[in-house]
């Protein structure tokens, strides 16, 4: 990515004069929002300690991968999908079934087939199976636009949840899958939280790099043109349905990777981890951070995780109401954003 030296000089000049920097911040909401959320994260880390910060960092990395993947579809292509949790779940269940210890599984009364394969051999399979599912549903979804596409993705999320819940010989239904293996390389197991955080950050960096390459290429420019006017781009000979299907599959594969990491980190999954609400939360993260920008997905994921975890430390809020309070606060934030900044905190596109 080329470095804008003129921009750097302008910021350096502003740094020498605090008054100018303050006026710049008031005019530039992106700068202010980024500074506020990053400062909030640093303060939270010092407040709760390094151990808790590492756990929060892992949650952030997984949500960020999922948000970046969805932003490719929603922000850069203009297709509002609420079904990404299905691909996330496919990746998670693939990781759970293929890495769980068969010897342990045979001790259970409702044993399911598990294989004990290594994490790094299974993670590409998580992406491939999620991509295959995306092809199967994408061929049908390509016929839909706007509100109909949203409803179709909504239906896919419901179907995926019911498959996870009712395909008991494979998923064990509501009982879930336990003892999912952690990653290991040459006998060294990523059983520590810090090691797993670093692993997640590596995959987040890879997903960001792939996403940046996509949106910076001619392929990405065609996606943006489809978002602005699909019929106009087809006049120039581009097959919009092919481009939409391609980015849909790439996005689903990234979500499958996030699901595989999630299953390996928690070592237990059940269908309640992949309900429709989770998909709505991912869409909320993308909208909150900003559409059509990779940095916005990271910022939205960071703000969401800090909000989610920070509310548990409010002294006057009873524990049993924390979940409902989180959803209420997030809903209020989204309403305010739609009223005053529809493109999100650092977004480039209005939904």
Largest β sheet strand count, sense and barrel closure: 2 strands, antiparallel
Percent helix:
over 70%
Number of helices: 16
Question: Helix and strand succession?
Answer: HHHHHHHHHEEHHHHHHH
Largest sheet: spatial strand order = 1-2
List the defining traits of the structure above.
351 residues; 2 strands; 72% helix; globular
In short:
By secondary structure, the chain is mostly helical. It is built from 16 helices and two strands.
Describe the structure.
The protein has 351 residues and is mainly alpha-helical. The chain has a domain of 223 residues. The chain is built from 16 helices and two strands. Strands 1-2 form a two-stranded antiparallel sheet. A hairpin with a 2-residue loop joins strand 1 and strand 2.
Question: Which helices and strands occur, and which strands form pairs?
Answer:
Blueprint: H1 5-16, H2 18-27, H3 29-48, H4 50-74, H5 84-99, H6 102-105, H7 119-141, H8 146-166, H9 168-171, E1 184-185, E2 188-189, H10 193-216, H11 218-228, H12 230-235, H13 240-266, H14 276-289, H15 294-310, H16 322-340
Antiparallel strand pairs: 1-2
